Amino acid sequence: MAVASPPAEWTSCEEGHEHTSFNRSLDKRRANRQRRAHDVLMNLPTSVSSTFPAADGDGYELQMGRWSRRLAGPFLDFVGSAHGESVLDVGCGTGCLTFALKERCQPRQLRGVDFSPAYIEHAARQNNDPRIAFEVGDACALAFPDRTFDRVLSLLMLHFVPKADQAIVEMRRVARAGAVVGAAVWDARGGFVATRMFFDTAAVLDPKASERRARSYTRPMTRPGELKRAWLAAGLTDVVETTLSIRMEFASFDDYWAPFLGKDGPQAEYVATLSDAERAKLCNALRLAYVDGEPDGPRSYAALAWAVKGIAPS
Length: 314
Hints:
alpha/beta
């Protein structure tokens, strides 16, 4: 998989403060997209239930979309796919799982739902298949009738939903009898090296980062067995939990650091709170952790995800 290249200007820890506002690099077209996304957001219920900091589809692609795309393969191997199905992707982001599913089989219908208008607009721009539709929505209040879908899936979303149990109940509700309901979340505490390196380094420098680290490692559904217990509690049957693994490959430290200068994800949210001097200090400390005694260049980090699947009862 090609590694996304960071903008050339995001290369200096000392000068990075000049580029921490992601919008500075946006052209007029992207600014117009953001205004349209804001208009959609203003029409959403005030109780949209995700804690993920979401601002821009391109920013998400750099921060997480490239890894979601890579994880989609082993996830679909686990939960399965079939021709002619109607499938719902809950928390679709920029559409990585939806598009991966389309490449695997010939679905009758694919629907993607996400709380972020910016991500939905990004996904819709990539789509030219009439069977696929993306829409803004809340995982805890899905706007579909009972028993609508043959397969209901969620990739890297549930751990950002404070009321994750409610979202799981909704996933079961819209699943037809016999449908597969499946999800995956990062093993943030035990198997997510790139993020651990960020928060462990930041926590040494800043007590506030220690609080954010604790929050990151204790999100819903990220502990061993938690997804399976939640699936059973929701009344799903034949429940199976497993671990999926990928490699997160970075071309250089700048490729690793660049997403944190945007506005998407917990790390960027934290970096935005720092002064210029604090940001440079963190950048330099992370650079040392990244190069780890060798010249700067490519690095490959393991990333593990908890995954679960079950069957909607009749």
